[in-house]
Design the sequence.
């Protein structure tokens, strides 16, 4: 065989794709994959034939005739034979190769029957040289890979070289240390807004400071008054839970709860009166900016408060295969076929949906387009599987038809207005429950607008509730969402701090390349240890021995590795809680909730009935230097 095509017909057992050069580290560490991360198992490594002592190894390619061989692509040319080295299983050759563009591979036993090309596979390896170069080729029988090392870098350092030297690329909006605040539970700056301007009992006002499911009094004024406390941790960015006007109470009886968390929005243009006013938010932002602290909003695009019922009074999810959508003329269609386009069928509320929507006249949503029932999916509650992940109601909350360009453009205008108010970025709720085309369009509109206002560092990161980097990274790689919450880090860090093997961390970091593009990297991922949904890191470590030391270790790991660390409010005071959701949402001001009062802090004492803003507490002091060190080293 002496042709390029013939040289490409190689061994019957090519190396698997995860041995490719850029993913070799991922393959090595993936052997320790952990069930905690729910990673898919990898295929077994294909065996590489053993190489006997008498085996000959030949460098074969399109440059052989220039190196003393009678022709190119000769598997038996002695002039390009590699010699065994002191390193077992490695063969090496040093040669002077003229400038030019070439291809090559390694052949064993003077035949292309067993040969190794690019990444150990069948494809020839390209080689481009702008000048004559002395090179060392080293073939490793254990991996099937060939390494090339230049031995004579030509010329002295010059001004031309200096022009190539530049500061490392920094992703816009990266390098922050976040403090994540549930506004209602942080500080009560004004008791005048505790009931949100409403009169009546707690089922009307939503205010009951003795119940962990109702408003307890925290507000923007309280947050503003505690900026010194937040800044003392080394914080450079505050992330607020959704602050828009909410339905005060949803549910009834034992299921009744208030919108203190901010995820039951009725008005996307106004701060919830329980929390304050738009003007108070603007004042907070101005003061924070003077201190070098950014302010981020938690936002929602896929649902609103539950204000749409149906005539049938049924709420189980209905698959499209059973009852498809129909346009106003009665023709069946799938909204996914129009996602990402500028057109969408006209719909009729009385005939287009499996359930007939009935809009409550109790409250009008703002902006007004949100009151159109044909802009919602109206298929019943999500089962968290299949099409219902994006088409189903989130536990009854009205799920928007995000495939419709009216919804895309409507929410783009909503959030452009908050950019104008001074917000520095968005954390985007429930991102995986929205069709991907929405993010491709909406993120571009918002980012283009922010840049036009001179906000080149405007930063948006999504909540994609999954611990697999392969599922998280497309939101970074294929949209203008800058990053995603690093659930993979949370899972691995909590497991490691709790006593599991460090191999989980190796698996975590080996997947970082999934986030790498010309403009993005894993360095910008917001890393966290717990939150208001899953629970606090103290809760995860509660059954461990030496839990305080492990708590400190978890925070050190978060601050001193890649990413943008997020401190969940109260963690700096040792809050642990007893679970997720309401059980992880304690107030820093003196709690009147008996369940919270009796909870044990990570330090051993009870949370009690006192304020918890002690900047001299051991955990506050432990975190603050770490954050300050991270500030100095990451910027």
Sequence:
């Amino acid at each position: 065989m002496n042709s390029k095509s013939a040289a490409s017909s190689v061994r019957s057992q090519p190396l698997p794709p995860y041995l490719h050069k850029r993913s070799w580290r991922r393959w090595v560490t993936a052997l320790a994959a952990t069930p905690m991360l729910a990673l898919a198992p990898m295929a077994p490594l294909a065996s590489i034939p053993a190489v006997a002592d008498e085996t000959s190894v030949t460098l074969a390619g399109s440059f052989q005739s220039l190196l003393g061989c009678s022709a190119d692509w000769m598997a038996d040319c002695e002039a390009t034979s590699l010699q065994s080295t002191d390193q077992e299983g490695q063969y090496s050759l040093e040669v002077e190769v003229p400038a030019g563009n070439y291809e090559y591979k390694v052949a064993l036993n003077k035949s292309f029957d067993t040969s190794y090309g690019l990444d150990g596979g069948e494809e020839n390896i390209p080689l481009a040289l702008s000048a004559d170069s002395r090179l060392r080729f080293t073939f490793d029988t254990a991996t099937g890979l060939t390494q090339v090392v230049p031995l004579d870098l030509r010329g002295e350092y010059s001004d031309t070289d200096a022009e190539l030297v530049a500061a490392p690329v920094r992703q816009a909006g990266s390098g922050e240390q976040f403090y994540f605040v549930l506004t209602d539970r942080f500080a009560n700056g004004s008791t005048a807004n505790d009931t949100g301007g409403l009169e009546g009992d707690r089922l009307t006002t939503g205010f009951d400071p003795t119940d962990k499911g109702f408003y307890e009094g925290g507000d923007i004024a309280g947050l503003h008054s505690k900026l010194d406390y937040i800044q003392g941790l080394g914080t450079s960015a505050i992330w607020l839970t959704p602050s828009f006007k909410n339905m005060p109470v949803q549910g009834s009886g034992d299921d009744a709860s208030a919108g203190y968390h901010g995820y039951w929005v009725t008005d996307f243009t106004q701060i919830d009166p329980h929390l304050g006013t738009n003007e108070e938010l603007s004042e907070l932002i101005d003061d924070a900016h003077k201190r070098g602290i950014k302010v981020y909003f938690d936002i929602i695009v896929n649902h609103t408060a539950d204000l749409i019922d149906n005539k049938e009074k049924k709420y189980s999810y209905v698959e499209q295969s059973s009852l498809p959508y129909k346009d106003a003329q009665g023709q069946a269609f799938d909204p996914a076929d129009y996602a990402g386009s500028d057109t969408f069928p006209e719909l009729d509320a009385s005939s287009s949906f499996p359930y007939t929507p009935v809009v409550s006249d109790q409250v009008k949503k703002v902006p007004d387009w949100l009151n159109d029932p044909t802009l919602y999916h109206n298929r019943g509650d999500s089962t968290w599987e299949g099409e219902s992940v994006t088409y189903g109601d989130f536990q009854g909350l009205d799920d928007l038809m995000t495939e419709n360009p009216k919804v895309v453009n409507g929410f783009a205008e909503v959030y452009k207005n908050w950019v104008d108010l001074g917000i520095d970025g968005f954390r985007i709720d429930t991102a995986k429950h929205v069709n991907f085309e929405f993010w491709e369009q909406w993120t571009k509109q918002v980012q283009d607008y922010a840049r036009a206002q001179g906000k080149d560092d405007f930063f948006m990161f999504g909540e994609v509730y999954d611990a697999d980097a392969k599922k998280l990274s497309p939101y970074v790689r294929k949209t203008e969402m800058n990053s995603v919450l690093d659930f993979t880090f949370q899972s691995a860090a909590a497991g490691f701090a709790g006593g599991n093997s460090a191999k989980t961390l190796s698996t975590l970091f080996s997947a970082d390349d999934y986030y790498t593009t010309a403009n993005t990297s894993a360095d910008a991922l917001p890393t966290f240890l717990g939150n208001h949904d899953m629970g606090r890191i103290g809760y995860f470590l509660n059954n461990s021995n030496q839990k305080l030391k492990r708590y400190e270790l978890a925070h050190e790991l978060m601050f001193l590795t890649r990413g943008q660390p997020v401190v969940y409010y109260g963690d700096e005071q040792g809050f642990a809680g007893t679970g997720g959701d309401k059980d992880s949402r304690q107030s820093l001001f003196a709690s009147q909730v008996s369940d919270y009062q009796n909870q044990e802090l990570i330090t051993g004492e009870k949370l009690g009935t006192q304020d918890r803003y002690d900047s001299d507490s051991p955990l506050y002091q432990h975190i603050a230097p770490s954050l300050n060190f991270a500030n100095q080293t990451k910027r």
Remarks:
- The chain has two domains: 4-154, 178-305+402-634.
- The two ends are 56 Å apart (CA to CA).
